[in-house]
Design brief:
The structure holds two protein chains of two kinds. Chain A has 17 helices and 22 strands. Chain A is of the alpha/beta class. Chain A folds into three domains: 234 residues, P-loop containing nucleotide triphosphate hydrolases (Rossmann fold), CATH 3.40.50.300; 170 residues, P-loop containing nucleotide triphosphate hydrolases (Rossmann fold), CATH 3.40.50.300; 72 residues, no CATH class. A six-stranded mixed sheet of chain A has the order 6-7-8-3-9-10, sandwiched between helices. A six-stranded mixed sheet of chain A has the order 16-19-20-13-21-22, with helices on both faces. A four-stranded antiparallel sheet of chain A has the order 2-1-4-5, with helices on one face. In chain A, helix 14 runs parallel beside helix 15. The chains are: A alpha/beta, B mainly alpha. The interface between A and B is medium-sized, with 39 and 29 residues.
């Protein structure tokens, strides 16, 4: 059906796909799996005409193709059901299925009966019961997903990519989707199923392909593969010696979190943080890691949660209150929730400490500048000019400014979410050293990261999140924890 | 050299380039250019004390409203209701004065009504998350409508009110040079004084400095420990205070309250603030810049009057200046990115 050979893709100087081979047989459900950033989405985007490839060939139905646009791919019979649904909520289901290809009557107007009839036929073929007259926006997420599939079928798709289709579906909806997938397979369609959930892939797929760091690790027939084998293919063997040494001594509990819950995202999270240790938080995207940390400082209204800081009960009413008490969260979203892009380093680093660095209520720019200079030296921020706007800094230096802003506010507990996302190797190791130094100085450090090598390399203890709660607590003080054991508790 | 020395040196050379690239610097130059041009074309009428006084006095209200607008723009807000709330506040004060209430309670009632409008605006924008454009568009209509209903659209004069009140705004303070008396009306002095003090506070006082961070990035400000909801609502309340000051001065200077005060003043205020460097995207703006923006628009208006130009061109020119100002900004951002 589809045979891709030697697909390569780079963004700027960053190579994200290294000569990947991938093929799909007719009437097959082929699972594509890999860690975040392994290159799954890029591969799908290339095969569906959303991105161009640098090198490699793609044969579809025996013919060499080079889709310049998703529409070309659709015409040829390749459709994608994206994770983010793209239905028009205020139009009917039938209109959505035939969007921009509306069936028209002799007057050039929408031929509603024909569209409803055709849509009904497609739903019958899929074996689902959806009213084509209903507004798309009134359907549940699961139903909308099925409408997306119907849209692909209306385009006579022969190959459908489904990008994490079950990530926001209920168990019942997932079963319904499985039914549809099996029906379509029986009718000779091929489906590429992208998912993080191993159980799901084993339940539905015929073959599994694993990508890691933009390279093909291998393709296995599902019947002959075991979940352990797939996990070890996903994580591979990562080097561990780039990280600073672990905690020399671990002291008393400095921060306690109990029964932290956030509506729909976090359930009953409890943990302790000890003096001197770095607590790592791992879990797949959507597992509730970030939501839990934001709920901790009450950035989003939490349902419940009690906290103790150095033996004293504290409330942490809102981020400002948490910061006054010394609990500081550094966001994963550097550009929109971290730094103030258009402001210079002085204003950024001083943002959390305007009160402390003031004289008679007026901003003390000299003092703000001094702290900025101090952090510029300590963290080797370049260019070393405090008047440089943050937008003009590289990603790594922006991240250092963000960390400096938090440190300037003198944290007792510092939570860093994805502290090295999009950061070069040099800045990364500097940030890691800083975090270890803070822990050695007695500040409680929590590192949230979706990069397994990073959490494993940094943390003395690890919480693995799954479905909004702590799935397991793993000890890592001797650094012996393996990616496999973490993955095993992170996936369903 | 140590890092510190190198940094200071680099910052000093940066100072000159910062000055040249600053908004205020160019606005001062442009204003001077307009003054010189008009002075050369109409030396007698333009360069007279009376003309200056008239231009500056007339622009006082616009300065106050533009300062109000700048404040909400800084927090990434917008206030289209400044002109209408001015009218409502003026009408309420004039009616109370007419009915024989003492001056200060009447003025406080005017302040209360302005603050109430500002609070509703702020609450709906900040807490309910409705677009400021829509909220304040509604308030603009509601306040104007309410003022008209209260007065049935008539002027409200207050002959029984203490005479000092109906005089103070036009009261002139000044000095003699030779036989000439150079008087500056209280209206203008108050406006300049209030604006100057507020400008200094906005540039230095920590609680006001936080508003810039909020406008630049609300989420980052929240996670930097700022109480963003409180800050956002405060901006609308500060805006209301300036609207009230303008209402007091206008009511006193004209000796009447009127429901049609300040029609389309919100658009002039917005234009002046944006020309002065404020942005609808929040996080920027200065009182000096806004003042220079109002001055530029006032000089252009004055020029058309003095040169016997068709006054209808005035509006078109203001529009063109606004588009040029934002166009230059867009160009600079575009260049900086590429």
């Amino acid at each position: 059906m589809l045979k891709a050979t030697g697909i390569t893709k780079s963004f700027h100087t960053n190579m994200v796909l290294h000569g990947v081979d991938f093929d799909v047989l007719p009437g097959e459900v082929h699972a594509l799996i890999g860690e975040n950033g392994a290159g799954k989405s890029t591969l799908v985007n290339i095969l569906s005409g959303n991105l161009s490839r640098d090198t490699g060939t793609v044969l579809f139905d025996g013919q060499e193709v080079d889709f310049a646009h998703p529409l070309d791919a659709m015409r040829a019979g390749v459709s994608v059901v994206h994770q983010e649904l793209s239905l028009v909520p205020n139009a009917s289901v039938a209109e959505n299925i035939y969007l921009r290809r509306e069936k028209t009557n002799a007057f050039g107007l929408n031929d509603w009966p024909a569209m409803f009839k055709a849509a009904t036929e497609i739903f019958q073929r899929m074996g689902v019961d959806i009213d084509p007259r209903a507004l798309a926006g009134s359907l549940s997420v699961g139903m909308q997903q099925l409408v997306e599939v119907a849209k692909a079928i209306a385009l006579n798709a022969k190959l459908i990519f489904m990008d994490e289709p079950t990530s926001s579906l209920s168990e019942k909806e997932i079963q319904e989707l499985y039914g549809v997938v099996n029906d379509l397979k029986a009718q000779g369609l091929s489906i590429v199923f992208i998912s993080h959930k191993l159980t799901e892939l084993f339940a539905i797929s015929d073959r599994i392909t694993v990508l890691r760091d933009g390279k093909l690790v291998g393709t296995r027939p599902t019947k002959q593969a075991s979940p352990e084998e797939i996990i070890s293919m996903m994580v591979g063997r990562h080097l561990n010696d780039l990280y600073p040494p672990r905690a020399k001594s671990i002291g008393e509990v400095i921060f306690k979190c109990r029964d932290l819950s956030l509506f729909g995202a976090v359930k009953d999270v409890s943990f302790d943080l000890r003096r001197g240790e770095i607590l790592g938080i791992a879990g797949l995207i959507g597992s509730g890691r970030t939501e839990a940390m934001r709920a901790l400082i009450n950035a989003d209204r939490r349902l419940s949660g009690t906290f103790e800081l150095n033996g004293q009960a504290v409330t942490l009413d809102d981020p400002a209150d948490a910061m006054e008490k010394g609990v500081i969260y550094v966001s994963e979203d550097r550009k929109s929730q971290g730094v103030f892009l258009d402001y210079d380093m002085v204003r950024n680093i001083g943002a959390s400490t305007l009160d402390r660095q003031s004289r008679a209520g007026m901003e003390n720019r000299k003092s703000m500048r001094q702290s900025a200079l101090k952090f510029i030296r300590e963290m080797d921020i370049r260019p070393a000019r405090p008047g440089t706007r943050v937008v003009d800094l590289s990603g790594g230096n922006q991240q250092k400014v963000l960390l400096a802003k938090a440190l300037n506010a003198r944290p007792k507990v510092l939570i860093v979410d994805e502290p090295t996302r999009g950061v070069d190797v040099g800045a990364k190791s500097l940030i890691h050293k800083q975090l270890r130094r803070l822990a050695d100085e007695g500040i409680g450090v929590i590192v949230v990261s979706s990069e397994l090598p990073e959490v494993l390399g940094m943390s003395d203890r690890l919480l693995v999140f799954r479905n909004g709660t702590v799935a397991s607590q793993l000890d890592n003080n001797d650094g012996s924890l393996t990616p496999e054991s973490v993955m095993a508790s992170a996936v369903d | 050299m140590t890092i510190t020395e190198r940094t200071i040196e680099a910052d000093q050379t940066a100072l000159v380039s910062r000055l040249v690239s600053s908004r205020q610097f160019w606005l001062i130059l442009i204003n001077l250019a307009v003054i010189c041009t008009l002075g050369a074309l109409r030396p007698d009428s333009f360069l007279s004390w009376i003309n200056f006084k008239a231009v500056l006095s007339l622009m006082s209200y616009d300065v106050l409203l533009a300062v109000a607008m700048t404040t909400v723009l800084i927090v990434r807000g917008l206030d289209l209701s400044v002109g209408s709330v001015l009218a409502l506040s003026s009408v309420v004060m004039a009616m109370l004065l007419r009915d024989g209430y003492p001056v200060f309670p009447s003025l406080l009632a005017g302040l209360a009504i302005a603050l109430l409008c500002g609070f509703i605006n702020g609450l709906l924008v900040v807490k309910a998350g409705i677009l400021p454009f829509l909220v304040t568009l509604g308030m603009m209509s509601a306040a104007r409508g309410f003022a008209t209903v209260l007065t049935t659209g008539q002027y409200v004069s207050f002959p029984q009110a203490p005479r000092w009140f109906s005089r103070f705004a036009r009261q002139e303070f000044g000095f003699h040079i030779g036989d000439m008396f150079y008087g500056i009306p209280a209206l203008l002095l108050i406006t300049l004084g209030v604006t100057l003090v507020y400008g200094l506070l906005l540039a230095n006082w920590v609680p006001l400095r936080r508003m810039f961070y909020l406008g630049e990035s609300p989420e980052a400000a929240k996670l930097s420990g700022m109480r963003t909801a409180r800050l956002g609502i405060s901006a609308y309340l500060i805006s209301a205070i300036f609207v009230w000051i303008a209402a007091v001065l206008m009511t006193s200077a004209n000796k009447i309250g009127y429901a049609n005060y300040g029609i389309s003043a919100e658009l002039r205020a917005l234009a002046a603030a944006v020309i002065g460097g404020a942005s609808l995207a929040g996080g920027s703006g200065s009182i000096l810049g806004t003042f220079l923006g109002v001055l530029l628009l006032a000089l252009i208006g004055n020029g058309f009057v003095l040169l016997n130009g068709n006054p209808n061109w005035q509006q078109a020119t203001i529009g063109a200046v606004l588009i040029i100002a934002v166009g230059v900004d867009a160009l600079r951002t575009f260049r900086a990115r590429s």
